[in-house]
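go over this chain:
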Amino acid sequence: MTRARQDRLLGLLLREPEWATAAVLADALGVTPRSIRSYVTAVNARVPSGGAVESGPQGYRAGADAAAALRASSEAGTPRDRLHTLVRTLLAAPDGIDVFETADRLHVSPATLDADLARVRGLLGGTELTLERSAARARLRGTEVAQRRLLSRLAHDEMDAGSFDLAALRRTLGAQSVGAQAFGPFKTDLVAELGGLGYFVNEVGIGDVVMHIAIAADRVVQHRDLPPDDRVDGDPARRAVAGILGELTERHLGVRLGGGDREHLATLVLTRVVAPGTGAPRGTAGLDPEVEEAVRAVVDEAAAEFLVDIAHEDFIERFALHVQNLRARAREQTWSRNPLTRSLKASYPMIFEVAVFIASGLQERLGIPLLDDEIAYIAMHVGGRLERSRRADGLLTATIVCPGYYELHELLRSSVDRSLGQAIEVVGVDTRIDPEWAAIDSDLVLTTIDPPSPGDRFVRIQPFLTDGDIERVQAAASRVRRARRLARLRAELERYFSPDAFLHGGSADADEEAVIRSLGSLLVAQGVIDQDYVERTIQREQLSSTAFTDALAVPHALGMTATRTSIAIGIADPSIPWGDGRVQVVAMVAFSESDREAFQTVFEQFVEVFSERESVQRIVRRATDFPGFLDELVAVIDG
């Protein structure tokens, strides 16, 4: 547990570049500030420079070697190191291991090894493997595919946030695993070959497939090949990819894969990391009509529920191909990891919520249970569609004030359009030396002369635009957008809060369901929701954690069925466990049908406010009652 908390401390510091006090970090991890100081000492000891975490008067922040410390292998003999060694030993011994001999070899007592075997049993859920124990012998029983699935689980346990890490993979497979140094060139050539076939390659997920290729190569060297699968002989797409994998594995790793392994790995490639382009070979099955129908129905429902522009034929076709591959992965229980899951959830909560809604619909229609990483891939599809269909009226308007001198104002406008056209739209140019400043109503005023009084929307620039000018305009545009968003949020929130829907404190070990029921009971008492809404909120939480930041959870039900929109607030000090982390603020939101348009404003901007560590601590420390909470929240919003 201590090692895991040290890693989580590093993860928190890497995600947030600002200084953080020991008290703030302690709240996030659910420990004392003294423990934070000991964790920092231990983390710095992982790297020769001792520079994983910097300390200063303002607290702690990630140092130059923080990422290296996070990847550093655990010390030999630690529980996780022993566990992985024990699993490798069991997988390498078809006839089982002698418990007492293995305990001696690992320099632990038989009782300790028995405890480790119990932990191995805990890893076997969903792998179709069983651990048999007979007197002094222990043995893993199950198919070769199931055994590889267990190795994959161990490798992901070693890796941070699902990203591919060769050092972590070697810790899982053992230091003697084949060709670890060759996997960089292997991956480069694989991407090139797939591109040559006409496929678009998903670089986010390809590391996961390379991991499976490493596992396959290691098992083949141990004479643990997969048998051929007669069902795939007629698929030209799979045959083409299988041929590439066989050739590259022999060239780079010196391992000759059998037909079964080539077919298995080709299936992983086709269902995880490629999308067919115009020249790609097509499989014989094509797009399953059942999948296409389900996707079309779910996308239409999501578009209507969230008022998002995603119901387009090109989106539905591409997404249906993804879902078809997703269903194949679900059947094989070979889920894809997504290293962007956490950042997508924190940065784009609205898009992630649409993805959860779609995932719920797919689970209902196609029976596909989806993990957070797979939901994140759906969010990437949704976000890509919304980005392509985003309207130009999201741009800020700007007026250029540049006293006329030959064509100087025309050159300046051209420079602004060229350098800032994606951020602002120039709606006017005033060439007078004494413009009517009060009559200029654009969002920004870019002026080469000093305005009569300063303001957030006035940006002083040079007649010949410089890099510094561009940066100042971009910063001003960001400030204006944020101020506008938060102003809308403040107006909305003041309507939705109630003194009767506020809790402070509570049990430090309360789980998600208990907190949801406590906050839900306050909204039920107000007649805002019924008990069914509370149960559906718990079901939504089970689909994917609503902890969108390291401090805030926003539980809610799928479906806007409240009689009116209302928010119940719970403040936890110290933090409470939620999902894979801990939170200090829980905002249970009940949305009504009439407030669909407010959903995006409230949801995304509320999460944005609580993504700032200092803002969270200010609210938590001072909001001991409802008036204090509202005062602090408004103060934070107003800056």
